[in-house]
Amino acid sequence: MLWLVFTNSTLRSLIVDWRSRGQDVLARFRADFGRHAGDAHFVQLVERLKSVSPEFAEWWPRHDILPMTEGRKDYDHPLAGRMIVEHTTFSVSDNPELRLVVFLAAAASNSIAKMKKNCRGVPERCLLNILWRSPLRERTLPSSR
């Protein structure tokens, strides 16, 4: 997700207040990075992101850290308009590398109705499908070479 947030213009256009959300994603990644100090894969990812994302390069030296917890994400869906999703992260106590993140349309908004309406019969209209469609991911995931 980190790579997509900083390199994919389609995803960026869906995220409300992208600069703030990007900084939050980076601060959460830094918490993981700290547990893997010196790991070549993490270092390579950071270096590649600094080279392709001016925002990542600007914000990385700040050393901000945020925990993986719960929150709210607002998206501007191209067909349904503003959609609000709440999320909670559950950690596995025996393995801090494993997490389960649950996303739910916010009950207090009309996001549930928008999702039902826009997903019925046309799955590619769903917010998560827009975010995770294979062509989107294939174009933006970093090469392991």
Looking at this protein, list some descriptive labels.
single chain; 145 residues; alpha+beta; Beta-Lactamase; three-stranded antiparallel β-sheet; 3 strands; 49% helix; globular
Strand order of the largest sheet: 1-2-3
**Would you tell me the overall average pLDDT?**
81
The biggest sheet amounts to: 3 strands, antiparallel
What is the 3D shape?
globular
Number of strands: 3
Tell me the CATH topology.
Beta-Lactamase
Structure classification: alpha+beta
**Fraction of residues in H or I helices:** 40-55%
What is the radius of gyration computed over CA atoms, rounded to a whole number of angstroms?
16 Å
User: Can you count the helices?
Assistant: 8
Q: Which residues form runs of ≥5 with pLDDT under 50?
A: 132-141
CATH architecture: 2-Layer Sandwich
SSE pattern: HHHHHEEEHHH
How far is the first residue's CA from the last residue's CA? 19 Å
CATH hierarchy class name: Alpha Beta
Total number of distinct structural domains: 1
How much of the residues is beta strand, in percent?
15-25%
